[in-house]
Amino acid sequence: MHTHVSWAADNLVRAAAPARSAASAAVVVAGLRKNYGAVQAVRGVSFTVEHGEIFALLGPNGAGKTTTLEILEGFRARDAGRVEVLGFDPGDRASGRAVRERIGLVLQDIAVEPYLTVRETIARNAGYYPAPHDTDEVIALVGLAGQERKKVRNLSGGQKRRLDLALGLIGRPDLLFLDEPTTGFDPNARHEAWEVVRGLRSAGVTIVLTTHYMDEAQALADRVAVISDGQIMAEGTPSAIGGRDTARSRIRFALPEGYTAADLPLNAVAGEGLVVVETAEPTQALHQLTRWALQRGTVLGELTVDRPSLEDIYLRLTGHDAQMEGSTR
Amino acid sequence: MSIATYRAPRRDLALLWHQVRYEQLSFWRNPQSAFFTFVFPVVIIIVFGALFGGGGRSSYFNGLSALQYYVPTIAAVSVLSACYSQLAIVLAMRRQNGILKRVRATPLPAWTYFLGLLAHCIVVSAVDVALIVVVGGLFGVPLPTHWPALALALVLGAASFCALGVAVASLIRNSEAAPAVVQLVLFPLLFISGTYMPIHSAVLNRITGALPVRPFNQALLGPFAQHSGFDWKSLGVLAAWGAAGAIVAIRRFRWDPRPE
Hints:
The structure holds 2 protein chains of 2 kinds. Chain A is 34% helix and 24% strand. By secondary structure, chain A is α/β, with parallel strands linked by helices.
């Protein structure tokens, strides 16, 4: 084709770009600050996202998640700090097109031209990228097969979000930003979306997502950062963040009839019908408790042993632990 | 440097054509825009044709027949609605819905997006003007004689009113207010600029001569009224308004519905 030469040149540059940024991470954020007037929305946020991993930003509304994401996406200017996306500064207009050819994004709100069909909408955006995916493949991937000829205005809310995901993927991105990707999905659709995201990671795509859902972060993310009040409160794998892996276990059970917490062989706290024993040695503690019960010919009803969930950690880190502990005691 | 350096101009041209095709598709599929922008001026010229079709030349219409006067002025209305009104309303709406932000997130260069819109508007205007000329012809209005002058006036007018449309879209915050603001400016301006009846007040003509609509009418009336040559003065005023609109658009245009 007549564009052969330019395409070859593009491919050279595209091939060279990851090599140059291979030394650094896919995303680097250091000391990022952003104010809206007197409000400090982002106050010195730092994190890095390695190539090929799924990184989740967890945090309450207004914590600075979306502002941080929008600075990475090039929609907003930062006030201070260093930001690197695939080796480029997203605030630099000169490299804007080169970065946008390699990133995809799915924003929170749904916005698509109402009068085009699903296929036309995706094919239009495919034309914007140098090496897009096949339109029909992407339609099948997001689960819109059979809806290709439907006008966008006639799609359901969930179908529009799938279309939005398709638009994020069509350009064959190296890095994908997902801002609350499954909000409003029914449980089946969420699990399907998770499968798509895992599939993308297997294909080598780096993914940065924000979410409110702890199970989503737990199911998808390689690493999680909890952001609150414009600051990163903790960062780590979902199973170790906030000291989850080293935290004390909690043994909960119903106190047998006729006994008080003081009769137990271990220190226990009574709350809402159940007593809670916190321990660093759950094997030992369980043995003592069950022996105590068996010797008295009784049982420990509703017995459970658990570690703090990701949600417990999240609530503690985002300043809602007072309420949580109040309800346990 | 950026990849853009390596890009062959042909690929950018292909991208522009791609963009125009999808703008056309969005436009013709939307019954509201297709009707108000496209059908409305044609309906008006048919009504005027039925009303004034048989009339001869008169001094009231500056020595033209009524329809000979109205074919160019209604052609101007069709360009105004296809470029100025349509663009201001569509862009304000696309921004509010977040569609513009999505466009910004793709590698599509801003200039390709706007050039695509301009080309789209010129195509719609050209088809509309052609239809109006044909309807005029059916009612006995002779074809324009100076085609280069007509083509230049149409392209310059379309470009200038597109720039003004983008400028207005840049100044309006709220997309619900867009149609009202657009009509509030345009409707009185059409009347005092002689679109629906010739204005014989020298003072008023001097004032409207410095505003964008009357110069456009004059630049189109020339070729239709069998004058020869280009109306450089009117074209100059039109170009100045276009440049002013472009400056406002470039400085104030926003992709994001929310303030920074």
